Amino acid sequence: MEQRGRSEKVHVIACGAIAREILAIKDANHLDYLSLECLPAIWHVYPGKIAPALRQKIAEARSNGHDKIFIGYAECGTQGEIDKICAEEGIERISGPHCYAFFSGTEKFLAECDTEFTAFYLTDLITRQFEAFVIEPLKLDRHPELRDMVFGNYTKIVYLAQTEDKALQDKAKWAADYLKLDYEYRFTGYGDLDRELTLAARPAVSAEPPAAAPGP
Q1: Is residue 177 in some structural domain?
Q2: Beta-carbon contacts of residue 130 (< 8 Å; ≥ 6 apart)
Q3: Is residue 54 a contact partner of residue 71, using CB atoms and an 8 Å limit?
Q4: Residue 185 bridge partners (DSSP)
Q5: pLDDT, tens digit (0-9, with 9 covering 90-100), for 175-205
Q6: Is residue 183 part of a domain?
Q7: Which residues constitute the domain of residue 57?
Q8: Is the predicted pLDDT of residue 138 greater than 50, yes or no?
Q9: Residue 32 gets which letter from DSSP?
Q10: Do residues 136 and 34 both lie within one domain?
């Protein structure tokens, strides 16, 4: 019996902080049947806002006819709320605790985290918008004395780079200098995100009966 792949529409509700990466993976893997809707990237800093908005967006997606939904968040500091939503709705999310883990490779990240508990991580997006994601929310621009209070127990910035961009590398090094921390660069690419999205968007398989044999 011949098996024929059937592309099933997949609606991804994701963190705006990884929108570029999701779209790049979609294009590279020709996932034309994947649609993307993002919540504000700055909620990366305010995780308490994520779960209520996800509930609303899932309800809207259902009412708009999206049967297959995938959550483009890891746990992301929601204290189990995203997992609760996924269980209630029968949908999946990106595995792992946060974007630093799935960009690094979750198994690798978790294996190394015991020796890197004094690292402060950056991604492309957080590097690009370091002022909006770190300096302004922590009021370091107005109260520089807070820098040592907040980051006194950190020893280094680790830039987990999704792209090889010299300007972003320079910005990440500047961020490390600003926080008075050592600097380490690691190119991760998209890590586990590529696999997670590809699996989430895998086409359903429908079986078709064999063609009738020609008559005598």
Answers
A1: yes
A2: 122, 171, 175
A3: yes
A4: 159
A5: 999 999 999 999 999 999 999 998 886 654 4
A6: yes
A7: 3-98+191-207
A8: yes
A9: T
A10: no
pLDDT digits (tens, 9 = 90+) for 163-177: 999 999 999 999 999
76: pLDDT strictly greater than 80: yes
**Paired tokens of 201:** 């968007």
d(CA 34, CA 9): 6
**Measured distance CA(95)–CA(193) in Å, rounded:** 9
DSSP designation for 2 = -
Count: domains in the chain: 2
Task: Please write the tens of the pLDDT for every residue from 99-114.
Answer: 999 999 999 998 888 8
The reported pLDDT for the residue numbered 35 is 95
Does residue 202 lie within any of the structural domains? yes
Dihedral of CA 160/163/166/171: which sign? negative
CATH number, domain of 88, equals: 3.40.50
**Is the C-alpha dihedral spanning 87, 91, 93, 95 positive or negative?**
positive
